[in-house]
């Protein structure tokens, strides 16, 4: 497998150097692996910190900036960051109003952010945490680690970020972040596996005639393997899975997200079908996002995330944002 | 070899040698651990542990603490700081809790080590909320701690006792093959995780095998 890299061990650091060079509005510490908004902590503003394994770009560092995250902590490829990173990022953005950690529900992320939150408390930084667990492909039961955090992370970071930018207190920012997660669901489909730089070969094999349904974002296989079908049917599987878990109606925010290796033209093909499926179920795609936002390296495939909007959530979604990967209204 | 279970012969140098041997084993088995993780996880267990143990050996080389307890606490803290993922906090906690259980003694016995291993496993269970049968590192660690405690009660020698612990860990890791995973990333696969050996249980068995290797020549 060919990769545009200098070496498997240097990928994360090299990419952060590139991020720094391309975006002067970010303060990037490639050595300690922390990306912070330039200009230092904003007095009285709640700091928003997220992080997770690398390989999902633009998540999370691409969402650092006005109206969204104050800092991101990228781990190794598909590996959560370590507590030291999260503590350093949290103290760097703490403007006296506390810090919200946005944590995707994976065992590693949960454990490392929990340890970081304890260390932050010892340093006098008040931390609240919101757990994102929107993936309906995983049953939340005693027999799993709970639902995975996937596409809804973008919605949580954008909407909570807008509220924090408006000067809301920590408890309010945390409340709206949890509300977005509660009202959001995702489902993903892979047409091919991804290849991590360290492994050099795909994490699983799919033939031309097969797809994986209910995939996560780490190249892990999905819940079931099924036959390849056209975009209308595959998006129907995703919308059905979401609708079964959270009946869809009214205005929704919908993201058709590419997994990294699917061309934008195919994502628009998928979006046309998704909008149709939503209309068939009595929901209206009032706001949308089509593109690569929560990727899995070079995996071919897509995920659909739907959030049932309220007037408050719509207003916060529409609020200005200026980050490397999302920017409007400013 | 043949040391009495109550004899306090296990010095900081012994624990340092263990971590060096564990680092060698993890390096040698890195690709195999990653291969196991690719089947039911995310294909990084070998590289992450290799990075962590390499850093632990480096940390001990810079400043080897004066007590076995402090050696293990330093190893645990280094793993937490350098590994990431779930295995960093879990292994880190295992070593830190084991180290704390050893207290301030300048040298410890096999009986002390048995108590420390039990404390380390308890820490992992607490942090990960995992029980035996969940297809995690606990499936290797818990039987090993049990076997070591039993060997100590029976008054067996150090080499023999750690051999029993290592064998129990290996058997525990192999026993994860038919289990469906209930914790961690493999649990997302549900029944599809059956038929694969758990990478965390496999690395736990490697680390305990390294302990026996070092004890056999001590």
Automatic annotation (TrEMBL), chain A:
GO molecular function annotations of the record: glycerone kinase activity
A cellular-component GO term for this protein: cytosol
Entries under PROSITE patterns matching the protein: DHAK (PS51481)
One BP term from GO: glycerol catabolic process
Keyword annotations from UniProtKB, A to Z: Kinase, Transferase
Domain DhaK: 7-328
Stated name of the protein: Dihydroxyacetone kinase subunit DhaK
Lineage: Bacteria, Bacillati, Actinomycetota, Actinomycetes, Streptosporangiales
From TrEMBL, chain B:
Tagged with keyword Kinase: yes
Annotated GO biological process: glycerol catabolic process
Record key words, sorted: Kinase, Transferase
GO cellular component terms attached to this protein's record: cytosol
InterPro entries according to UniProt: DhaK_L_YcgS, DhaL_dom, DhaL_dom_sf, Dihydroxyacetone_Kinase
Domain DhaL: 13-213
Pfam (any one): Dak2
GO molecular function: glycerone kinase activity
PROSITE patterns, A to Z: DHAL
Keyword Coiled coil included in the entry's annotation: no
NCBIfam families assigned to the protein according to its UniProt record, in alphabetical order: dha_L_ycgS (TIGR02365)
Official protein name in the record: Dihydroxyacetone kinase subunit L
Organism: Planobispora longispora
